[in-house]
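Protein folds are increasingly written down as discrete tokens. With that in mind, we are printing a sequence and the tokens encoding its fold.
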Amino acid sequence: MTSVSPIPSWNPTPSRVQGAAASRADAPAVPASTPSTIVAFGAEGGEQPAISYLLPSPKVWESPSHDAVSELMTKNFAPYYSYGGRFGGLGAAMLDQLKGGVRNISQALLQPPPRTQPGPYAEAAGIAPASLHGNGEDKVSLSITTKSGVEVKLSLDSQDDGLAVRMTTSGELSDAEVKALGDLSEAFQEAIDGMAQGTPKVRLAGLMQFDQEVLTSVNLHAEVLVRGEQKSTQTLDFQADSTQRKVSFAGVAGSLDVKVDASQLHALGSKERQAKALGNYTKQIDQAASRGHGDAGLMAMFKDTLTALHSNAPVPPANAGLPEDSKWRLAAEDRAMLTGLSDFSASVSQTVKFSNPMRASERDGFHYELSQKTSVSGTSQDDRSLRQQQQSKLSASFHQSLVPGLPLRLTDKVESQNYTYHQIEDTASSDAQMAYKDGKLVKASLQQEASQSTHIMKYVLAKVESDVTTPTSHSLMRDLVADLGPYKTGELGMTPEKKAEQRQQLLQTLSEDVLLQSYPGQTISLWQADVLPEEGEAAAA
């Protein structure tokens, strides 16, 4: 008979020497005792069984320091914490140490494998927990540079048998810098917790609120091991400074990449103007996701990222135009032709799946691109031109059951081959242009185009029953010189106040008209693209 009985722990927490600073990485390692187990082997009624002791090895620490960060590491390393939960609170705790005057931290703990015979403490202490730094299966690093040139680096590493944290500061920090860094503690933790979830989330809005008067750049890198039958790694990279902001993510569901040009302050509009333009872009994303059956979690991350990178954008004064080294400033008419947002490029791609074993050429995928580009040129205030282009592109394909609500299970058997296969190709663009010659407006145009193509093949018992492609298109070309010029029909006899009110309404309407419209005049509801052609007619896109 085999029996297993635990021996109560006489010291459930790691023993440490109190009073040493967290940065003393050269201090001797101090192990901690943990419960052991007696394993008895023998037949029932036989001779006294031989007893073998399976002793969990004591935890080995890089430093004996007794501080808040080390205590939190002890708590997070408990068996009932998930791997993602081991970083819980640690990022915020490290940045909070700056407020107390701590500038450097280096701490790590290692849990050696259990042994059948008790080993000397020296043997356990010979294991180097410091080797965990930078080598974890799960890792997060944050680098922040102040305007004075001081760089603060933080890193967290975790693996099955260990946990490590480190913070280094390259120079002296002012009170303002300490406050600005400490104010990011919760935001840093939010970013960590988002990536540590089973379904990751990009939570960068808090980090984007960094004090731009004190800090010049914020960089974050995260790698999380997805544990399961097939291991994979999800990665996140974030960078924000005075010239650009960018995020890239790659994971199980897919990948995304967003870049924002933060250098063109002259093109920025009011907070309200930016919010309206950003709301329109997220609307285009929602419509594309519905059309192409985009993964809900991945598309939410995409929208959150685009929104976060456009937040905390500096707003120029109402009378500001181009930067100081430019030769002109933008007029109210110019700004009405712009979205008010910084230029950007964004793309998202789902991991391609081949869900039909009978037709390997059919795949389930989703790829969407969205961008804005602004250019201003000329030789003087009176001879200048500006152009802003917005574009979107969707390529998607997916399978769907013939019976609404019934899950589709495609196999290599003919009986399962009852479905529709959809292929979506959509594009949209908006092109606004203005030009001045000798101080007079000589060009003001808005050109918008949108096209959609829906290809649906219907299979019944593996045979093609219908094959329909539905193309649709929409185009608009407007000459706005007459509308934006100084003299317009119908203004004769108007008071100056009435003229100013009418012009303000015109500019307000124009600022809404220039926004990208991927599906003008259409209401895109969930799964609308799945409606099948009836009686030989194509379904509405």
Summary: The first helix runs from residue 68 to 76.
